[in-house]
Amino acid sequence: MTTCITCQHWQSKKTDPGMRRHGFAQCMKRAKGHTYSATAPACEQHKAVTQEQATKRAEWINKGVGQ
After folding, report:
1. Distance of alpha carbon 23 from its chain centroid, rounded?
2. DSSP code string of 22-55
3. Number of domains within the chain
4. Of the candidates 49, 56, 58, 67, which lies 20 to 30 Å from 2 by C-alpha distance?
């Protein structure tokens, strides 16, 4: 299953630190200003990040979600 963490529109750097800490980030396409979990199913507007960025995001999540 494809999830939000692998999408270019999932923008953790533009998200409040409190939400990032829990693994959530803003989606710049779905509903601007709303946050989605890294594991949320991707929508029809999904646009994949590079493999390098996907790896970095996975490492970020796996080390305790931005701690």
Report:
1. 7
2. TTEEEESSSSTT-EEETTSBP-TT--BPPHHHHH
3. 1
4. 67
3 secondary structure, DSSP code: B
Q: Which domain holds residue 17?
A: 4-62
Residue with token string 């701690």: 67
Tell me the whole-structure pTM to 2 decimals.
0.81
Asked whether residue 67 is assigned to any structural domain, the reply reads no
**Could you list the pLDDT tens digit for every one of the 67 residues in the chain?**
899 999 999 998 888 888 988 889 999 988 777 899 999 999 999 999 999 998 998 888 887 665 4
For residue 11, what are its two tokens? 């923008």
